[in-house]
Write a structure and sequence with these properties.
This protein has one domain (4-240): NAD(P)-binding Rossmann-like Domain (Rossmann fold, 3-Layer(aba) Sandwich), CATH 3.40.50. The protein has helices spanning 13-24, 37-50, 65-78, 102-129, 150-170, 192-200, 210-221, 237-240; strands spanning 4-7, 28-33, 55-59, 82-87, 133-137, 175-181, 230-233. The longest helix has 28 residues, at 102-129. It is an alpha/beta fold. Helix 1 crosses helix 7, helix 3 (65-78) packs parallel to helix 4 (102-129) and helix 4 runs parallel beside helix 5 (150-170). The chain has a 7-stranded parallel sheet with strand order 3-2-1-4-5-6-7, with helices on both faces. It binds NADP nicotinamide-adenine-dinucleotide phosphate (NAP).
Length: 245
């Protein structure tokens, strides 16, 4: 199969796992990274060792218009038959009210909302040729704000609507879905108290695994009648209600 999947923020953590899953499914992988060059290169080598010429890396900062545009141009110049776009890269920075300046707010919204939106728009022609699909990584906090992460929560709520809107605008040629993780990998700045609090709110009483996200994405990629859906992978947490602390 000569079909490519572009995964943003694919060098580490959940993006890395999605890349390995889609590669296992037969896709070639364009690994986007920003700062994690060594991780991106190591993943790329691993995938190419399994199947020669089946992975490439490309760097881009996605938080501003100029670099986003350059990234789009660079990807287009490769002329890859792009069949899947996974918008996984995301900024998770606290933005306490009154302590966040305009530029920081703009950069967070650019990374988490505008980059996914314009990547979808700009790669729509090739995705259309491949009858492809787009998956946006959202968050259960799109529905309920996470304390001191207002702009992050706002960005994910907006990305949820972008997913529905793009599913409408790009139909019938391209399917667009969202995956909303609950607690999968702790953020670097979380402490024992907040981790215990979250764990108590999860009916399945454990963290999810990156593989839980990757397996769902694998399914969505090959599900021809699913579009415009946001699926939570959260151990039942959003079904029973949860606090945003
Ligand atoms: N982890 C969870 O439990 C959880 C929960 C809910 C939702 N999610 C969502 O699931 C997705 C994956 O989660 P994760 O925890 O694996 O993500 P993450 O580690 O917070 O971020 C993934 C990657 O995004 C890239 N990135 C960040 N800012 C960027 C920028 N301005 N420009 C370009 N790339 C940028 C980074 O790439 P480099 O390392 O190359 O710089 C980073 O490795 C995210 O969309 C996240 O919001 C995750």
């Amino acid at each position: 199969m000569n079909k490519w999947a572009l995964i943003t923020g694919a060098a580490k953590r959940i993006g890395h796992c999605i890349a390995k899953q889609l590669h296992h499914d037969g896709f070639n992988i364009l690994i986007h990274y920003s700062q994690s060059y060594n991780d991106a290169l190591s993943l790329c080598s691993e995938l190419n060792a399994t199947r020669p010429n089946s992975a490439q890396i490309m760097q881009a900062e996605l938080n501003n218009q100029i670099e986003l545009q350059q990234f789009i141009t660079n990807v287009k110049s490769l002329a890859l038959p792009l069949a899947v776009l996974v918008n996984n890269a995301s900024e998770f920075t606290p933005t306490p009210l009154g302590e966040t300046d305009y530029l920081a707010a703009q950069q967070l919204l650019a990374t988490n909302l505008l980059a996914p939106y314009f990547l979808a728009e700009q790669f729509a022609p090739t995705l259309k040729e491949q009858r492809g699909c787009i998956i946006n990584l959202i968050d259960i906090h799109a529905k309920r704000p996470l304390k001191d992460h207002g702009l992050y929560s706002i960005s994910k709520a907006a990305l949820e609507m972008a997913t529905l809107s793009l599913a409408q605008e790009l139909a019938p040629d391209i399917r667009v879905n969202g995956v909303a993780p609950g607690a999968i990998l702790w953020p670097e700045q979380s402490n024992d108290d907040s981790q215990n609090h979250v764990l108590k709110e999860i009916p399945l009483a454990k963290l999810g695994q990156p593989d839980d996200i990757a397996k769902l994405i694998s399914h969505l990629v090959s599900a021809p009648y699913i579009s415009g859906q946001i699926i939570a992978v959260d151990g039942g947490r959003s079904a029973v209600g949860f606090t945003g602390v």
